[in-house]
Amino acid sequence: MSVDSAPVVPTARGVFCNRTLNMRSIQAVGFDMDYTLVHYDEHAWEARAYAHVRQRLVDQGLPVADLRFDPSLFTRGLIVDTELGNIVKASRFGYVTQAAHGTRMLDLECRRRTYSQVWVDLGEPRWVFLNTLFSLSEACLFGQLVDLRDEGRLPGSLDYEAIYALARDAIDAAHLEGQLKAEIIAEPEHFVVLDADLADALLDLKQAGKRLFLATNSEWHYTRAMMSYAFDRFLSGPGWRDLFELVIVQARKPRFFDGSAEFTEIDEESEQRDFGRTVDRLEAGRVYRGGNAQDLQTYLGLGGAEILYVGDHVYADVHVSSRIRRWRTALVLRELEAEVEQEQAFRRAQRELQAGMEQKGALEAEQALLRLALQRLQNGRTLPAGVSGDEATLRERLRHLRGTVDSLDLALAPLAQRASQLGNERWGPLMRSGNDKSRLARQIERHADIYTSRVSNLLYLTPFGYLRAARGSLPHDACGP
User: Fold this and answer.
1) Angle at which helices 220-231 and 198-207 pack, to 10 degrees?
2) Helices and strands in the chain: count of H runs, count of E runs
3) Quick one: which of 113, 65, 106, 64 has its CA closest to 89?
4) Cα distances (angstroms) measured from residue 412 to each of 308, 356, 365, 459, 462
5) Residue 92 phi, psi dihedral angles, 5° rounding
6) H or E element: which one contains 21?
């Protein structure tokens, strides 16, 4: 039997490679759970989290009862400026390309006045990177609280940094409280987006000899409920637990990767969340709480390059596991799927836009040369090579070129506007910031070996696939014949 042709992989379901990865060399694959193996309808999930946060703030006497969660206001990958009460989008070099004060977008002039001399350095406490889809409600609440503060409707004299701390603490408390998660457990069909291909993707890995483990920050009772709902209907036999050699809950990532906390074994059938005993060594088929990556790696008996860890958090899942443990890493970006589909649909218009920009560049180069020629004429010097004519002729040509460029700008403006709204109408593409890579794209490029929109896309890669990173592009690469 032969394979007539390779299956056609939808572009939006691709696995994209930053650093060459041979899946045959991977001996163990670890997974985060939330927004990785279990994907939520982020609007529904974050709306419930937001409602709990709002109630907490109402109980503290803040005038927020009328606020509503608006998922269209912000996206993953933006950066909070706690000093000025802004949320910004930055390029890979840290230059701010878009900004909102509170929930109001800043125009170009205001943004230039504010950030022309400012570089976003994520190592400074002023800046907070919004890493995951869990950040949507946080950003929305912060922006709305900034609006209330500017309107003089918040009590006291809270500055923007204090407002962010207030929002962050309330969000953290809501995510940890039992009531929110109890609602999701009770009605998972309202929050969890099922993926019928996911179980097959993990079975392929397991049956190819990969050792699978789950390492999540969620509690056991919540993990068990979510994983059962997302997997068991698509599996025959014992269910989701049979997929994983080890399950680790309340891992406390990112500390899991550089800490020394001990593992505590959990009784899988116990409803007592504090049940367990500290263990000296790990055993296959068990569920553990806490622990650390070094002990896990010792148990597996593998080098870092033989372990692939898959998660959705750029820092807590991907950055620290690659930097500290030297594990291979995969980042899940669910929003990428729709964005890539939009870019595919825009491809013809993008080619038109690119051709127009190249034409504009050529016209602007001619304008620059004519200005130089006029300058030389005025100073009694020889005209540049390729330029001839008297001053009147040169000025007329320059005037004509200005009109041509202005007309071209008018024609290209609608295309440029559409291109800037791909992915998100307010903030544009997730991985781009203007013509440059976004800061999010730079973080992914630095720390994720591969990235994809969902774990089940590994079906297309297979456990035996070989991903080769594309040749890196440089600005002078476009200078060919």
Assistant:
1) 100
2) 15, 21
3) 106
4) 44, 7, 18, 40, 42
5) -60, -25
6) strand 21-22
> Closest Cα partner for 444 from 18, 20, 151?
18
| Phi and psi at residue 383, to the nearest 5° | -65, 150
Could you tell me if 343 and 351 are in contact, meaning their C-beta atoms sit under 8 angstroms apart?
no
Question: How far is the first Cα of the chain from the last one, in angstroms, to the nearest whole number?
Answer: 45
The average pLDDT across 15-27 equals 96
Q: Are 461 and 23 in contact (CB under 8 A)?
A: yes
Q: Is 392 exposed, middle or buried (0-12, 13-18, 19+ CB in 10 A)?
A: exposed
Tell me: pLDDT of 54 over 80: yes
pLDDT digits over 98-128, tens only?
999 999 999 999 999 999 999 999 999 999 9
Q: pLDDT for 427-461, tens place per residue?
A: 999 999 988 999 999 999 999 999 999 999 999 99
Phi, psi at 63, each rounded to 5°: -80, 65
Instruction: Cite the DSSP H helix spans in 120-274.
Output: 135-150, 160-176, 178-186, 198-207, 220-231, 255-258
Number of Cβ within 10 Å of residue 74's Cβ equals: 25
Q: Distances in Å between the alpha carbon of 223 and those of 183, 185, 216, 372? A: 14, 10, 8, 68
User: Helix %, strand %, coil % for the chain, to 5?
Assistant: 45, 15, 40
| Average pLDDT value for residue range 45-59 | 92
Query: Count of CB atoms within 10 A of residue 333's CB?
Result: 25
At 394, which helix (H) or strand (E)?
helix 391-420
Q: How remote is the C-alpha of 449 from its chain's centroid?
A: 14
Lookup: tokens for 213: 């483990």
| pLDDT of residue 418 exceeding 60 | yes
- Report whether 312 contacts 132 (CB < 8 A): yes
What burial letters (b/e) apply to 426-441, b meaning 16+ CB within 10 Å?
A: ebbbbbbbeeebbbbb
Token representation of residue 117: 């001399």
Nearest to 113 by CA among 93, 94, 99: 99
- The reply to whether omega before 254 is within 30° of 0 (cis) is yes
CA dihedral over 221, 132, 338, 144, signed as positive or negative: positive
What pLDDT band is residue 274 in, cutting at 50, 70 and 90? very low
Calpha distance 226→190 (Å, rounded): 12
Whole-angstrom Cα distance, residue 433 to residue 272?
48
- State the pLDDT at residue 238: 81
